[in-house]
Prior knowledge:
The protein is mostly helical. It has two domains: about 15-120, no CATH class; about 155-360, Helix Hairpins (Orthogonal Bundle). Helices cover about 85% and strands about 0% of the residues. It is built from eight helices and no strands. It has helices spanning about 15-25, 35, 40-55, 65-75, 90-105, 115-120, 120-250, 255-365. Helix 4 packs across helix 5 and helix 7 runs antiparallel to helix 8.
Amino acid sequence: MPNKKESWMFPTLTDSEIVYFFDTLKVGISLADHDLKRPASERICDLYAKVLEETTGGVFEQVDVMALQSMQEILQEIYSLDYQDIYAVQMNAMAFYIKMRKFMQVVGISDFNLGDIVRPEPQRLRMILSGIINYMKFREDQIKILVKMDEDVESLEAKNEELENGYHNLNARLNALKLQRKEQEPEVKRYKQDNESLMSKMRELKKKQTGLLSEIDSLKASRVEWTDKINNSQFLHVTAKQNLESLKSRIVLHPEKLKQTVEEMNNNLSKEREDLTAAEKSIRDTNAKLDMLKVVEDEIRACNKILDEVLKQRNNCDKAFKELRELQEDVETKRQILREIEKKEQVHLMILQINFGKSNFNKLCFISPFCI
């Protein structure tokens, strides 16, 4: 024996509330206070049929109440007769009753019976209609939720399509960058080789520059030393002339001594001239080396310009590689976001399918007279 379905609790409405609800529902039939206080079976049967049409979508012909009253006796004899078509009205009434009973079980009234249609009582009718109103209000709220969920699904599908388009665009851009990088690899390789060659030349020139600078420093020191010597010699020469002038008045004219003194002075002067000539020659050599150093400095400046150009090209390559890495990270982030959205959509669609499956199953149970 099947277990009895548990009844749900819902508030029992007043007559005026029930009348107001069916007036606003516009199901094709309206109620009055006397319909609730002195209910007629034909009137209530039509009301139940309209409620089933509104909730399940089925269309029911007018049900004969007398057929409902007699169908219990006829149902016992129907299978023993040859002409069963004459009981089509009673079978239609039976199908209506089965659907109505199943609908009432969904509403929460598990003890609905044939007497509620054939001989409706005011108090029980008020309770049944209150349950129907409670269910229809709940159904109306759920329909709004389902409509909102349908709109969310459409929005998510549009967003998913937008993300897929963005993903395809990024993927195309990434492929283009990969192709461009592959095309630029020979040029980058050539730039690297040129850079290495220029770096080696620069290191050699740097070493040469260091040696020349040290030599220049030593030559400058030597130049200063010789300049000091020349200045000292000139000072001594001037001093000697002054002493000679001062001593002329004291000189006793002795030809031999004078000749000897003149020879000594000539010798000293010749020696000083030789020293001066050697110093000037050393200065000229130093100036020549300084000129060579300027040429070397110009070459170093040219090499530095070439090195700056190479470094600039290298920075451009590094910048391009950095942009490529950023694009790859951006694509990976978009992929992760897309996977998360797809997971959420799958869960959301599964929930929708389950809810729609339950709704369709209940609706099929209401429509089919043989649904268990």
